[in-house]
Amino acid sequence: MKINHTPGVNGINPYQKQLKKVDAAKAASPAAGDKLEISSAAKEMQDSSRILAERREKIALLKEKIADGTYKPDADATAKAMLDFYGKL
User: Are 50 and 43 contacting, i.e. CB atoms less than 8 angstroms apart?
Assistant: First the structure.
């Protein structure tokens, strides 16, 4: 079987047109730099880590007082805080 050359089709790369489109699109659009935005949820998470550290310190102090026997809870203040909390619900 002999394959004959088709006249007028020599040397045409079928992908050249696609490559030219890609190159034109790159040239037309300006190079956008990287951009970083921190969402409000991420900012809250950053603040919560600070709050967690404060809680850990407070809990460690309370554990130390309980272990020493020097922790004296104020029953009236505890009851008032509980009523205030559940009164809001």
Answer: no
* Separation between Cα atoms, residue 17 and residue 23, nearest integer Å: 10
* pLDDT value of position 49: 78
Structure tokens at 2: 């002999």
Residue 87 structure tokens: 């009164």
Overall pTM > 0.85: no
Residue with tokens 């272990």: 67
- Which residues does 65 contact at the CB level (< 8 Å), separation at least 6? 71
Residue whose pair of structure tokens reads 């949820």 in the numeric block: 41
Q: Is the model's pLDDT at 34 over the cut of 70?
A: yes
Q: How far is 72 from 12, CA to CA, in rounded Å?
A: 91
Q: Which amino acid is at 89?
A: L
